[in-house]
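Appendix C: a fully annotated inverse folding record. The material below is reproduced so that readers can follow the format used throughout the book. The structure is listed first as tokens, followed by the designed sequence.
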């Protein structure tokens, strides 16, 4: 009988960058030692220097004491060698999405550490099974996605189990997440989890707005903010960069079709100005304009918000995660700390028949691109009854 795995007490983190630094800092702040690995010496040095700069600035501002700075600094060690991961109970792969690179790293870690170490992997446009099918110990592999990175604090971890992930691994990662004061969000294996799927839907909807609307990036972000969204899509696309956004949308297109508009051969920069993506919407705008009607920017923003709500409902209806988890994650990632409700609670409060009516109208405006999920229609019917 295989003895139970010990609780996590030392963490290895592979991939040094400004994107992974907040997670490393969070783990250090909870008192766990971290070995930060990057085989690119310059990337490692830049990240360590940024860490030291942040510590010094926060100490200068009185946000932490010199003693606490020293304690955090002593908990962190940097290295370019995977050998320094020996002794870790959990190793997190925080490298950028590249299938062959992640598989090669997982295999190297298995050879070095065996099957007694939990391997967490940050995933954006890949699934756990993409990697698990080509390694020796898939039962120890689990997907992770931090929720609530700065400017807000980290608040949750999406914990994504693959088909072959052992229940013990999920339990162990869940316990560790709670030790970090991060409420775990348990997600079943599926395309993209919760946050990235909703991000891809949000990005897709604003890319498919008519040219007259889409061209006003800041105005669209403001209108969505007035609708209740704390995350501004065009600003977020600029922050993430073309590579990340394009990869995210094309990934979901493979699973869900052209409502996620970017094809493999159409980069994001072209999609923003392409007429191919917008013929239906632009034609509709011309028709209503010639008919003397106008559609306000706030109406289009409400439509995008409704499409995002519908995607959250669809995630629950597919069994990817439960109502409460999806609601909590949407509150953290999309609606901000000023509300106690997520997209689903907000929809329930407004009344599902009203949401459904708005979605049908939005679907008509966009030539049937977004259809209300069957689950939402059932909820609307039950609300009416």
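Designed amino acids, in order:
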């Amino acid at each position: 009988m295989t003895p139970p795995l010990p609780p996590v007490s030392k963490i290895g983190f592979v991939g040094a960058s400004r994107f992974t630094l907040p997670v490393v800092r969070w783990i250090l702040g909870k008192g766990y030692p971290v070995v930060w690995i990057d085989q690119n010496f310059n990337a490692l040095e830049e990240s360590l220097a940024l860490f030291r700069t942040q510590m010094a600035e926060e100490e200068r501002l009185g946000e932490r004491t010199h003693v606490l700075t020293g304690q955090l600094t002593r908990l962190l060690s940097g290295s370019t060698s995977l050998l320094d991961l020996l002794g870790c109970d959990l190793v997190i792969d925080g490298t950028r999405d590249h299938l062959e690179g992640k598989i090669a790293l997982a295999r190297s870690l298995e050879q070095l550490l065996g099957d007694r170490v939990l391997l967490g992997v940050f995933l954006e446009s890949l699934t756990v099974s993409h990697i698990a099918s080509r390694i020796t110990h898939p039962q120890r592999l689990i997907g992770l996605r931090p929720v609530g990175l700065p400017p807000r604090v980290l608040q949750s971890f999406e914990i994504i189990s693959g088909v072959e992930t052992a229940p013990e691994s999920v339990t162990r990662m869940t316990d560790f997440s709670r030790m970090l004061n991060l409420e775990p969000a348990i997600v079943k294996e599926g395309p993209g989890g919760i946050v990235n799927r909703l991000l891809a839907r949000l990005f897709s909807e604003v890319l498919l707005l008519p040219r007259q609307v889409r061209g006003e990036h800041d105005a669209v972000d403001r209108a969505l903010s007035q609708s209740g969204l704390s995350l501004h899509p065009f600003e977020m696309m600029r922050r993430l960069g073309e590579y990340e956004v394009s990869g995210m949308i094309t990934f979901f297109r493979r699973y869900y079709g052209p409502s996620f508009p970017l094809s493999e051969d159409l980069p994001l920069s072209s999609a923003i100005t392409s007429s191919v993506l917008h013929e239906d919407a632009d034609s509709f705008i011309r028709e209503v304009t010639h008919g003397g009607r106008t559609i306000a920017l706030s109406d289009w923003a409400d439509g995008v918000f409704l499409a995002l709500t519908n995607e959250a409902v669809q995630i629950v209806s597919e069994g990817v995660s439960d109502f409460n988890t999806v609601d909590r994650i949407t509150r953290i990632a999309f609606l901000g700390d000023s509300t106690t409700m997520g997209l689903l609670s907000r929809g329930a409060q407004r009344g599902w028949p009203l949401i459904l009516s708005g979605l049908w109208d939005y679907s008509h405006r966009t030539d049937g691109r977004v259809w209300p999920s069957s689950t939402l229609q059932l909820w609307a019917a039950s609300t009416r009854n």
